[in-house]
Amino acid sequence: MSQSLAVARDLEAFVRRDAAGRGRLELLVNGARCAGCIGKIEKAVQALPGVDGARLNLTTGKLAVELDRSAADPDRVVQAVEGLGYRACLFDPAEAVAAQDREGRELAVALGVAGFGAGNVMMFTVPAWAGLFGQELNGSTLTVMYWMAALVATPCALFAGQTFFRSAWASLRRGKANMDVPISIGVLLTLVVSFSETLLHGRHAYFDAAVTLLFLLLIGRYLDHRLRANARSAARDLLALQSPVVMRLDGDVEQGVPVAEVRVGDRLSLSPGDRVPVDGTVESGVSELDNALITGETAVVTVAAGSALHAGALNLTGRLVMRATAVSEDSTLSAIARLMEAGAQSRSAYVRLADKAAALYVPIVHTAAALTFVGGWALGLGPREALLRAAAVLIVTCPCALGLAVPAVQVAASSRLFRKGVLVKSGAALERLAEVDHVVFDKTGVLTQGQPRLIEASPHLVAIAAPLARASRHPLARALAASAGIGLVAHDCVETAGQGIEGMIDGRRARLGRAAFVGVASGGGSETELWFGFDSDVKVRFAFEDQPRADMAETVAELRRMGLGVEILSGDLAAPVQRIADSLGVAWQAGLTPFDKSAAIDRLKAEGRKVLMVGDGLNDAAALARAHASMAPGAAVDVAQNAADLVFTGTELGAVTRAIRVARTARQRALENFAFSALYNLVAGPAAMFGLINPFIAALAMSGSSIVVLLNAIRPELAWRRK
Amino acid sequence: MNILLFLAPVSVALGGLGLAAFLWTMRAGQYEDPRGDAERILYDHLEDLPPVAPRD
Q1: Domain total for chain B?
Q2: Which of A30, A214, A324, A346 has the most CB within a 10 Å radius?
């Protein structure tokens, strides 16, 4: 049997080639953090034959590789990156195309054009305002100024407003009116009225208002778009976690195939270190699986012929042959990805504060404008003056302050949290966090530190057992090795999957592993212990425990004082969960699958609770996406961090209470801003109706109200600085 | 007053130049990787690498 043929993986499917035959390949690289990583990875990949260039994007974690016309081997690229100690997986070219953020770029260009327009149109309107108060600028010069303003403002407004016009048109054709309809009407009406006034040598033209309005609104749109783009990339990264290439067995020959081509009933080979690609059962072999990503269990699970395997689990110690019982789209990971997508959708249905305000604002303002026009004409103002006043009502009550009321507060709150080590992913997240009345914690890695630590062992014994522990991949053995520090490694080691490791230390044969493997009649039987002993000598026991975070009890007590319910949902075994839950005196459920967790969140939602989920594993990802608000620690898997609204770094759980406090303050400030905007509109609206507004007063009122709203937003910030 | 007819287009053109520069940086993909660029500037050898521009 030809060995090289047996392991040949056909990865050409991941290469996208242009007409000239040059290829492009994308990899998702995990673990790159700094310039050193960039240099190492790019240099190693560029040194490969057939590679023209490589560039790592540190922001997205994607490595783009340019291949020449020769049939370069994508697998060598993956191996080169993994050889440097980073995890790499190939990215489906179809996904890579979808990842190019066309909409985001269009919005940014529109924002740039609107910003240019808003800035430059002022050159002409500021002198024009001077003319309004009977100063030297008057008559034909004023008209020239307005024409120049029109020349700058009109193309900018029409270009930057496309997003609004298109969306408004689409919604009108469906027979509905969304928020973009009044915005489009307002901008277009303002332009038309300004043009007619300029033609008729009138004194009131609002070209600057039209562009400034769009500029302020586009800022909000752009931030909103970034939020949705992040949610989508979370789902994409989860799918990329599935090992893209699977070793399929045809008789005795192994052949690499893309995971999408695996059929039910295929036999697959899994080496130590591989992730299980699809759900299936073990046909032969013994090994241990790390299910932490899927279930949150801290203990590893031993599998043998007949055991069920879930996609995403990590094969730790032995080679396995498995039979696929599901295809990629039906596997556990894909199901979690679908749950997350559904969660993100249900969240986008959340009505934000600003939208609630807009739902009130739009009909009132437009009725007022229409009444001004009809009433003014009926009362003998003439159609021109009536239309001008109606336009003034629309402009002076423009939703700028309304549009800034919430984002300004949220930007200030996010930066305050950022300094305390909490990253906020979106403004909507802060609004939802402020409403939370129930907190659900995952146990492993959230309430606890997430890693087994050796407890109550004498340093002397640890030093004796360490050489054997250093030779093992088992998580408990690694914890033992970590507490011993750097030192000798035992030789002639043989690791028996699911049992333990045997080797020579100082010429004596020793064993480290389960009680039965070492030769002890099963003692505690706990999953979190290791036994060690030399042949025909005393056996010693090492116990491990996942330590709770230092401020766990304090944080839970604080949450209770703030009037929040607390609960633990864990995928771990009942005993360790109960121990922690009892010490805190909170409700708990253990042994939950990812689907149980998200179902439990749905049940709480159905009871009318607004749930904050705090979790760190892949098993929490769906629950994080479905909860009203969610937080993940910085040590969480990327997918959980992407699914969560907030990520807290550092070791303190107190970040949770801090974030809720800041979110509640932010909500308070936002409501105050709305109250101010309403008051302002109550004064400015009638003033415009009665013709007391000119373009200068309109611009002053627009920017004045925005500044007041901004100052109120940073008020907590100023108070905080003084302390 | 005639000077306005000269100066106003000039200043708009200068503003337009700024806008054009912004659009160029967008197209050239300079906002694709802010974190990476912040690191790359620290090392000379990283700048020698050929940039892989995003293709549409």
Answers
A1: 1
A2: A214
Geometric angle at alpha carbon A91, from A89 and A95, rounded to 5°: 155
Q: What CA–CA distance (Å, rounded) separates A314 from B21?
A: 49
Would you call A46 and B49 a contact, using CB atoms and an 8 Å cutoff?
yes
Q: Is the CB of residue A53 less than 8 Å away from at least one CB of chain B?
A: yes
Question: What's the confidence (pLDDT) of residue B55?
Answer: 41
CB contact under 8 A, A35 and B34: no
| Beta carbons of A57 and B33 less than 8 Å apart | yes
Of A102-106, A235-239, B16-20, which range is least confident? Answer: A235-239
- Chain A positions touching B8 (Cβ under 8 A) are 123-124, 148
Return the pLDDT at A715: 79
Distance CA A234, CA A622 (A): 11
Give the nearest chain A residue to B34 (CA atoms). A59
Of B31, B39, B42, the CB nearest to A58: B39
A108 vs B contacts (CB less than 8 Å): 26, 31
Tens-place pLDDT, residues A695-720: 777 777 777 777 787 788 777 666 66
Dihedral sign for Cα atoms in the order A681, A687, A688, A690: positive
Shortest Cα distance, chain A CAs vs residue B19, angstroms: 6
Q: Model ipTM?
A: 0.77
B51, part of any domain: no
The count of CB pairs under 8 A between chains A and B is: 75
- CATH class of segment(s) A450-547: alpha beta
Q: Domains of chain A: which residue ranges? A: 1-100, 101-242, 244-328, 422-448+549-661, 450-547
B15 domain residue, yes or no: yes
CB spacing of B12 vs A120 below 8 angstroms: yes
- Out of A35, A53, A54, name the one closest to residue B39 (CB): A35
| pLDDT of res. A5 | 34
pTM of structure? 0.65
Separation of alpha carbons A182 and A362, rounded Å = 7
| Residue pLDDT, tens place only, B12-50 | 899 899 999 999 988 887 887 777 888 888 777 665 444
Rounded mean pLDDT, A305-326: 83
Measured CA to CA, the distance from residue A85 to residue A31 in angstroms comes to 8
As to burial, measured by CB atoms within 10 angstroms (0-12 exposed, 13-18 middle, 19+ buried), residue A627 is buried
- The CATH T-level fold of domain A1-100 is Alpha-Beta Plaits (3.30.70)
Per-residue three-class SS string for A256-325? EEEHHHCCCCCEEEECCCCECCCCEEEEECCEEEECHHHHCCCCCEEECCCCEECCCCEECCCCEEEEEC
User: Which band of pLDDT confidence, cut at 50, 70 and 90, is reported for residue B56?
Assistant: very low
With CA atoms as reference, the chain B residue closest to A114 would be B19
Q: What's residue A8's pLDDT? A: 41
